[in-house]
Specification:
alpha/beta, 9 strands, 5-stranded parallel sheet, Rossmann fold
Length: 299
């Protein structure tokens, strides 16, 4: 069942970003949310389309470098010409190395480098789109987002339920693999007692009760968690007041298996008790589970 957007029926959203960052997936989500959607519309047709007749439903247009008349300045001019419609610019971004990997996996040619390596086209397109990226109203980095994760972000931004509550994502991670892309706030849990050094707990995770008891027995845990919870509860209303639709809080430890997972779970439960909408992601556990699943399939 489609969900109508929150704003007036003339809501206009332009979707753009580098090739491979998720534009097509975003358009499909917006269509599910009740938008009329058009992919790869020539820029010269945009103003006549949106001014030729009264809009009776929200519309989302995907505009990108595949079209022969696309230039950053031309798109910015369109935005200026449609200022009376209050258009929104949604920019789907993605890390360079992730785009390169996606092109390698699909073996597709890059539209801006059909006879060259994909990385050449990726860099060329990134430079070309920078002025548009700077102008964007909503920027979503899809580097670490699944299709479901992208849908969640778009639903929080564009679905209709009046004023949407701030959506909070808690992510556990390993410092050895770097900070999560798109994290707004990062907390370090490495000072807590590490279950890795207990042979009985080494193979377990922060989802196991025994690991939770071990970590919470740390003499500094209670004060740490109380401070963390109060700090988070202090910040969330302010972010919501500023109109932020999504906040990602990352909690890290050495391996991303024990301490950060436990604290993430405990913080999620506490925030839910205070009526905050919370989603959880355990980056390293998800990666391990995915690898095991692929191995079982013989991939």
């Amino acid at each position: 069942m489609s969900i109508a957007p929150t704003k007036a029926s003339h809501r206009v959203v332009f979707v753009t970003g580098p090739s491979g960052a998720g534009r097509s997936s975003a358009i499909k989500v917006l269509e599910d949310l009740g938008f009329e959607t058009i992919d790869n519309l020539p820029l010269r047709w945009v103003v006549p389309l949106l001014t030729g007749q009264k809009l009776t439903r929200p519309i989302a247009l995907c505009l990108d470098t595949r079209n022969r008349d696309f230039t950053p300045q031309a798109l910015l001019d369109v935005l200026d010409n449609l200022r009376h419609l209050d258009p929104e610019l949604l920019y789907l971004d993605c890390a360079r190395f992730v785009l390169q990997r996606r092109y390698s996996e699909t073996r597709r040619r890059h539209p801006l480098a059909p006879q060259e390596s994909a990385i050449v086209g990726i860099d060329r397109e990134g430079d070309l789109l920078q002025p548009i990226r700077d102008r964007s109203d909503t920027l979503i980095d899809t580097s670490e987002l699944s299709v479901h994760g992208l849908r969640e972000r778009l639903e929080h931004q564009f679905a209709a339920h009046g004023k949407m509550p701030l959506a909070v994502t808690l992510t556990s991670f390993s410092y050895k693999r770097g900070l999560p892309q798109g994290a707004d706030i990062v907390h370090d849990c490495r000072f807590l007692k590490n279950p890795y050094w207990d042979e009985d707990l080494r193979g377990a995770t922060g989802l196991d009760a025994a690991v939770g008891r071990y970590i919470s027995s740390d003499e500094s845990f209670d004060q740490f968690f109380e401070t963390l919870l109060n700090f988070t509860l202090f910040l969330l209303p302010s972010y919501q007041k500023e109109g932020k639709a999504h906040l990602c809080i990352a909690l890290g430890c050495t391996g991303g298996q024990h301490r950060s997972v436990y604290v993430t779970e405990k913080l999620s439960q506490a925030l839910a008790e205070h009526n905050w909408q919370v989603a959880i992601r355990h980056r390293e556990l998800d990666r391990i589970n995915h690898s095991e699943s692929q191995a079982q399939k013989g991939l």
